[in-house]
Amino acid sequence: MEQYELELIAKYGESDEELKKLWDDHLSYEKILEKYESKSFLTPVEDQEVKELKKKKLTGKTRMHAILDKYKKTEG
User: Fold this and answer.
1) Going by C-beta distance under 8 Å and a sequence separation of 6 or more, which residues neighbour residue 32?
2) Are 46 and 39 in contact (CB under 8 A)?
3) What would the pLDDT profile of 25-67 be if each residue is shown by its tens digit?
4) How far apart are CA 29 and CA 16, in angstroms?
5) Considering only CA atoms, which of 72, 27, 76 is closest in space to residue 53?
């Protein structure tokens, strides 16, 4: 995420529950993915979980960008 987007999340995250939840989920997914990426080998189950987490992270990020676009327009 760009610095400007991070600033918007910090500014509007307190009043926008959806944005806050999406951001918290995003950070949580990143931490879990980092743990998997540090492993030298993933089991098939772990590999599937990584794929699912990446999909969830991407879906959330797409929604976050839509919300942030709305705030970018109001900030003009």
Assistant:
1) 53
2) yes
3) 999 999 999 999 999 999 999 999 999 999 999 999 999 999 9
4) 20
5) 27
Q: Tokens 């610095």 — which residue?
A: 3
- The whole-model pTM stands at 0.89
- C-alpha distances out from residue 49 to 4, 8, 10, 56, Å: 31, 30, 29, 10
In DSSP notation, the chain reads: --HHHHHHHHHHTTT-HHHHHHHHHHHHHHHHHHHHHTSS---HHHHHHHHHHHHHHHHHHHHHHHHHHHHHHHH-
- The closest of 24, 66, 29 to 51, measured between CA atoms, is 29
Report domain extents, the chain: 3-75
Count how many Cα atoms sit within 13 Å of the Cα of residue 26 in the half-sphere of its side chain: 17
